[in-house]
Amino acid sequence: MAKSGWLIVNGFLRTEKFAELYALLQNAANARGVSLQCKTACSLTLAFGEETRIDKPDFVLFWDKDEVLARRLEALQIPVFNGASAIAVCDNKILTAEALVRCGVKAPKTIPAPKTFEGVGYTDLAFLDEAERALGYPMVIKEAYGSFGAQVYLVSDRAEACAIIEKIAWKPFLLQEFIAESRGRDIRVNIVGGKAVCAMLRVNGRDFRSNITGGGRARKLLLTKAQAEAAVAACRAVGADFAGVDLLLGKDGPLVCEVNSSPHFKSTLDCTGVDLSGHILDYILERV
Questions:
Q1: Which of 153-157, 183-187, 223-227 is least confident?
Q2: Pick the CATH number of 4-83 from 3.60.110.10, 3.65.10.10, 3.40.50.2300, 3.90.1150.10
């Protein structure tokens, strides 16, 4: 019997870039005889306790960051890929860093900023004193939530650090070691089902961030054993079925920078010729 699934997307991100990605996933499903219906998260708005009104599909391919909705669908015993826990950990860079260290995955040294509140801000910068001691300058400041390299700042001294901290005010953020050897360079590794499917080296000569959205360029890369193992371990640490793992090029080997639970793999397809949508659908169909 043919399988049916839902592709859950964000209804407010209506750009050509997102539409192309969704079309790739739906085409891969069609090629495998799977009915994959695209649904926005807001189309599933229901009061708590009314989830039984949902006509359940065989599986959900969750391409949004609405962890609450993912968790509600899981409670209905619907297989969800990626699951709510993985989405939550990947979406919050502080939780990602915590998960990587807990699982022994090498990553840049990271200090989470203490929690404050809107309208209060930081009246005590003792945590910055510790960051200066442990990380030195330049250092990276990252908001916990952000995509495409936005909400990531490189600061060269205390004045710049204080300016950024004041700018982001009460948002959760972290302070992180700057890996100078990897300035403007990183590796995007695409993992599906515990295997490194393909990778690309991203380079940006005008910015410390390598994101293609920010002007970076990419070329297909054959991974070393250490790079592949680091990316697979990172995916496992956050509990993801598939992910785009960003590796920094440290002087002593790869360091995991971030893990993306819903990677924008159109740039990977353009660079490597590998369409991840088929790999993702095959992985799901083996499990439902």
A1: 183-187
A2: 3.40.50.2300
